[in-house]
Write a structure and sequence with these properties.
- The complex is a heterodimer of chains A (113) and B (109).
- With 113 residues, chain A is an all-beta fold.
- Chain A has no helices and eleven strands.
- In chain A, strand 4 and strand 5 form a beta hairpin.
- Chain B is mostly beta strands and 109 residues long.
- In chain B, 0% of the residues lie in helices and 49% in strands.
- Chain B is built from no helices and eleven strands.
- Classes of the chains: A mainly beta (113), B mainly beta (109).
- The interface between A and B is medium-sized, with 25 and 27 residues.
Chain lengths: 113, 109
């Protein structure tokens, strides 16, 4: 069964204190791994797509990396506006046709000024 | 502006009532999805559609129905058979990445 787990469940950082979020996955037929940011009461906002082990993507203070079993979202010198829930998802082949996005439960990040 | 529009933002349902959530996209995507989000859980797939006039059940389809008569539209009906419908509902579209609407929060009163 396709599965995505994320750790930690919640993370509290001081402004400027760098850290990493983890996404571990098991999936048959991985097509891609995705990171999203979700603010309270809003829909997820797309951040990155990673397709193969060793790939890295960067956007402002965020960098996503991928191995064969997990992905990391590194946050460098975070600011309070980076506070949000970060979701990881994998795109898996469905048993009938098409593909589905399987989501992890998210990591709730709080950055204190 | 290109994007995905969900309406209404908030919806209240009485016991035994069917309600329909709207989802419209102008991104020319073939694939569209409906997810349900509950506190502390990941998004769970309700229904998906890869092409017009075709759709498939996801992991938690019981008590829900959909239609896909137009490429741009993928409405979700929450029927009275859904015993615990209070949740945040998210519509998405995309053939590679999934792009989301802003969600509809449904509450049973």
């Amino acid at each position: 069964e396709d599965q995505v787990t994320q750790s930690p469940e919640a993370l509290r950082l001081q402004e400027g204190e760098s850290s990493s979020l983890n996404c571990s996955y098991t999936v048959s037929g991985l097509r891609g791994l995705f990171w999203y940011r979700q603010d309270p009461g809003k829909g997820p906002e797309f951040l990155f797509t990673l397709y193969s082990a060793g790939e890295e993507k960067e956007k402002e203070r965020l960098k996503a990396t991928l191995t064969k079993k997990e992905s990391f979202l590194h946050i460098t010198a975070p600011k309070p506006e980076d506070s949000a829930t970060y979701l990881c998802a994998v795109q898996a082949l469905l048993h009938n046709y098409g593909q589905n996005f399987v989501f992890g439960p998210g990591t709730r990040l709080s950055v204190l000024p | 502006d290109g994007g995905i529009t969900q309406s209404p933002k908030y919806l209240f349902r009485k016991e035994g009532q069917n309600v329909t959530l709207s989802c419209e996209q102008n991104l020319n995507h073939d694939a569209m999805y409906w997810y349900r989000q509950d506190p502390g859980q990941g998004l769970r797939l309700i229904y998906y559609s890869q092409i017009v006039n075709d759709f498939q059940k996801g992991d938690i389809a019981e008590g829900y129905s959909v239609s896909r008569e137009k490429k741009e539209s993928f409405p979700l009906t929450v029927t009275s058979a859904q015993k615990n419908p209070t949740a945040f509902y998210l519509c998405a579209s995309g053939n590679t990445e999934a792009f989301f609407g802003q969600g509809t929060r449904l509450t049973v009163v």
